[in-house]
Amino acid sequence: MASSSSSRRKGPWPLLVALLVVVGGVGAWLWRSTRETGASDVPLWTVARGPLRISVTEGGSLQSLRSTTVASEVEGETKIVDVVAEGTFLTEEDVAKGRVIVELDKSSLEEKRRRQVITISGADADLARAKEALKIQQNQNESDLRKAALDVQFARIDLRKYVGEAVAGRLEEHAGDIASLDLRALASAEDVGGEALQERRKRESDIALAKEELARARDKLKWTEELLAKGFVSQDEQVADRLALKRNDVALEQADTALSLFTAYEFPKQVQRLVSDLREAKEAETRTKRRADSELASALSDVKGKEEKLTLETAELERIDRQVAACTIRATNPGLVVYASSEDRGNWMGDEKPIQPGASIRQRQPILSIPDPKGLGVRVNVHESALDRVKRGQTASIVVDAFPDRPMRGRVERISTMPNQANRWQNPDLKLYATDVALEDAPNTLRPGMSARVEILVEELASAVYVPVQAVTFVAGKTTVYVREGGDEVARPVRLGLSSDRYVEVVEGLSEGEKVMLAPPKDRHPAAGGKEGAAPSGDRPAPGAGAAPAGGGDRPAGSPGGRGRGGRGSRGNGGGAPGASPSAPTGDAAAGSSAPGAPAMAPGDAPARPGS
Question: Are the beta carbons of 137 and 295 closer than 8 angstroms?
Fold first, then answer.
């Protein structure tokens, strides 16, 4: 009984001793294994040589790069009467038949049109009256001008009638300075004709007759006196003959005086009056022409003003008709109907009311958009550091999240000139450029708004020595990788070439088959009190010979994980084709392709080689 009790008390000790021996052996083996691997838990990467795809990978969403925006063209504000249901797919047949997709309220416009028709009727009547007034004015002008021309003609005829053709011509030439002419001499001129010549000749004839009568009276008185002396006549006859002589002498003086008065006064007065009448008639004709021109211009201006008013009122009616027609919006291209309010729901500053019957719409306010199903593409935001590598026309591989097993081809179609300002309030230093990648032969199952990942192919290297970007760091200001040599970690400066978001070409400093660490050793990390000059993995250089980060935002391209882009749908590092791992290990994962979280290779990249 005592022996059995003793054996029960000693039974567990041999088992415990055996367990301690096993645990000690395993611990010794793990200690030796750790010593052999450099006592470091940082994964290793075997330097590879092979084809390397240089690409820029970004995330975005599907949208139509050729979308038709339907906006209100009605001035001011109106209301929606009817609108096609969102999600309706407009076909080619709908476009051909002119299917109505939006109907706006046009009642006020129709009332305005009725008033405008009345206004046009009044303007048309005013124009008709103005045209009649113009015709009357034209006729009046013609009558006044004819009368004025006749007055001139009559005045010229009167002048020619009085002085004759030759003298009248000279007088008309000197009508403005008639006082400078010697009219007395002109009265006796040989070329004077007309009534003036007749008057002058009459007076000259009167003088000649008076002289003859005077000579006869003198002769008669002489004979009478001789006969009286002989007693043949009486004294009374002598007295009568003497009186006759005196009468003839007075008649001669009167005839001379009449000729002098004609030459000195009557002829100049009549000439000046006739010349003045001719001049006044000419000036009156000029005034009549000017007055006629002025009144005609006024009538024409009135007609033109009425025509312009009618034109303006007609144009206003046409504008109203266009506004009425704009209230009915028809389909112009096939595609999926998307309400503008649905597109703006993500905008926290937007205050637009939903698109629905009864909603108020302003002029030029978008109502809906119709994306072209044949023009689908992906809009991504490319960081400024990678902008110099992205060119228009480059090919791209696109994977839509909804169809991850169906990669599609695309092509860079447009690169924005200015950076996207969407996130300027969150990060003013973040510069992203909107880039459109058009899909080639997009299937009908795709819909705008679907998330997608785009890999833009920059270059394909046939043979290159490369390492993951997280293996590169800065030491003393130089791009450096840590190489496992024997059981120690050695910092080796390298010269870098091209890079993708995941891999960087090593032009100089490494050879194929060498093993590099995917992060600096912990004992050399500044946070752990390591060697001076070593930088944390987050401060590693950008691939590409110390250039700007290949795919980074606020952190270098060599940093694992996200890039701080802030862009919608952005992925992490991942320069391979669709299906690549979104991020690379930071140093805690196992080395090589079998390590959890290790970067997966893309088609065209060299295979990952596990560390030892």
Answer: yes
* φ, ψ of residue 433 in degrees (nearest 5): -115, 120
Q: Quick one: pLDDT at residue 16?
A: 36
**Which amino acid appears at position 577 of this protein?**
A
Amino acid identity, position 535: A
Token pair for residue 608?
């990952």
Q: How far apart are CA 600 and CA 585, in angstroms?
A: 11
Q: Is the pLDDT of residue 316 over 90?
A: yes
Q: Which residue has the higher pLDDT, 559 or 383?
A: 383
Tokens (6 digits) for 145: 């001008």
Q: How far is CA 580 from the centre of its chain?
A: 45
Rounded CA gap, 13 and 9, in Å? 9
Report the C-alpha gap between 31 and 41 in whole angstroms: 13
Helix (H, G, I), strand (E, B) or coil at 51: strand
Distance CA 181, CA 186 (A): 8
Least confident of 290-299, 385-394, 600-609: 600-609
Average pLDDT in the chain: 78
Q: CA–CA separation, 589 vs 595, rounded Å?
A: 6
CA–CA distance from 141 to each of 138, 171, 288, 290, 297 (Å)? 5, 30, 8, 10, 11
Rounded to the nearest 10 degrees, how much is the dihedral formed by the CA atoms of 488, 489, 490, 492? 150
Give the torsion through C-alpha atoms of 299, 304, 310, 311, to 10 deg.
170
**DSSP bridge pairs for 90:** 335
559 CB burial (10 A radius; 0-12, 13-18, 19+) = buried
Q: Is 150 helix (H, G, I), strand (E, B) or coil?
A: helix
Q: How high is the pLDDT of residue 494?
A: 93
Quick one: how far is CA 293 from the chain centroid? 46
Task: Could you list the beta-strand ranges (E) of 299-402.
Answer: 328-330, 335-336, 338-339, 360-362, 366-371, 376-383, 395-400
**Per-position DSSP letters for 490-553, written without gaps between them:** EEEE-EEEEE-SSEEEEEES--TT-EEESS--GGGSGGGT--TTB--GGGPPPTTTT-S-SS-S
**Which one is predicted more confidently, 559 or 151?**
151
- Does residue 43 carry a pLDDT above 60? yes
Q: How confident is the model at residue 122 (pLDDT cuts 50, 70, 90)?
A: very high
Neighbours of 44 (CB within 10 A): 25
For residue 224, give the DSSP letter. Answer: H
Paired tokens of 157: 């005829």
Q: pLDDT value at position 25?
A: 52
* pLDDT on residue 298: 95
Mean local confidence (pLDDT), 95-105: 94
- Give yes or no for a contact between 248 and 217, defined as CB atoms under 8 angstroms apart: yes
pLDDT tens digits along 544-591: 333 333 333 333 333 333 333 333 333 333 343 333 333 333 333 333
Amino acid identity at 69: T
Report the DSSP beta bridge partners of residue 435.
380, 415
